[in-house]
Design brief:
mainly alpha, Farnesyl Diphosphate Synthase, two-stranded antiparallel ribbon, 16 helices, binds farnesyl diphosphate, binds magnesium ion
């Protein structure tokens, strides 16, 4: 991973603007999940650290834009760039990082460049769907999972598939691994939004529903409620929650096993991912990810 950090520092420095370097250093790196996957799938390729850095730059850019879109004040427990520097700077920093990533991507094979580039289109479409879907209560599980696939899984899928290409391995099993890892990761994230507190999350708890995001536990809860309670849940959509309303949602989710159902979906996806690639370390990444919720 040291090499990936070095590549990141080099690429950001090459942009040639101190402010960009300064702001990038302040972004806390996060788990670097996508980079780790690339290094694990293609450990012997000289190009892996650069590809990993490219994908991390794209990911960082997408989060910068996402925090502007969501008007999020916190990212990984730290004030977001839009909170400290304003939205204009956050958007431009995102643009600089992802265009720099693309400048580097053109040096890779056409198939790898196309895989990563098209995933960024998908990711942006997914984000737009997310915004559209948050405008009203969405009770459609399939539609939710499609949006989730685009928004979070496509870049991880593309990272894993590209690493397989670099390593001369079969692409599809790794693509499936990345896809399902991404999906189950996001479902666990949605669960944590409900069951964790702000201190653990590094962002406000129970915030998805306030933002209008009807995640899987909410969809399952809605399904299980009678008409009067459905009305109550719908009336709370996309508004600040009082502690009483938040407690009611949590209690009814517990009683209707809505969080558990979402957790089962995440577990099934993760098991499928594990079976796609017979690799202990890749399996361990999944286990750790699934366990972070309980
Ligand atoms: C986080 O979702 C958002 C994403 C994973 C993707 C965001 C994608 C874009 C903004 C498209 C633009 C892409 C580029 C490369 C500039 P979330 O809000 O559900 O999660 P959070 O709680 O971590 O904010
Ligand atoms: Mg967000």
């Amino acid at each position: 991973m040291q090499k990936v950090e070095e590549e990141l520092a080099r690429l950001v420095q090459e942009v040639g603007y101190d402010k960009v370097e300064e702001l990038f250093k302040k972004l806390s790196g996060g788990k670097r999940l996508r980079a780790k996957l690339i290094l694990k799938i293609a450990p012997n390729s000289d190009q892996s650290p650069l590809l990993a850095a490219i994908v991390e730059l794209i990911h960082a850019a997408s989060l910068l834009h996402d925090d502007v879109i969501d008007d999020a004040k916190l990212r990984r427990g730290q004030p977001s760039v839009n909170a400290t520097e304003g939205s204009k700077t956050a958007v431009m920093l995102g643009d600089i990082l992802y265009s720099k990533a693309f400048s580097e991507l053109v040096g890779f094979s056409k198939e790898i460049a196309a895989t990563i580039a098209s995933s960024v289109t998908a990711l942006s479409v997914g984000e737009m769907m997310d915004v559209e879907m948050a405008k009203s209560f969405n009770a459609d599980e399939k539609k939710y999972l499609e949006m989730l696939y685009l928004k979070t899984a496509t870049l991880i899928e593309a990272a894993a598939a590209s690493a397989a290409l670099l390593a001369g391995k079969e692409k599809e099993p790794y693509a499936l691994y990345g896809r399902n890892l991404g999906l189950s990761f996001q479902i666990i994230d949605d669960i944590l939004d409900i069951i964790s507190d702000e201190k653990t999350l590094g962002k406000p708890a129970m915030n998805d529903y306030v933002e209008g995001k009807t995640t899987l536990p909410y969809i399952y809860l809605f399904d299980a409620l009678d008409d009067a309670e459905k009305e109550r849940l719908l009336a709370l959509h996309a508004k600040p929650l009082t502690p009483e309303d938040a407690a009611w949602i949590k209690k009814r989710m517990q009683e209707t096993k809505s969080v558990e159902k979402a957790y089962d979906v995440a577990k099934a996806l993760s098991l499928e991912a594990k079976n796609a690639v017979a690799d202990k370390e890749l399996g361990d990444i999944l286990d750790k990810m699934i366990q972070r919720s309980y």
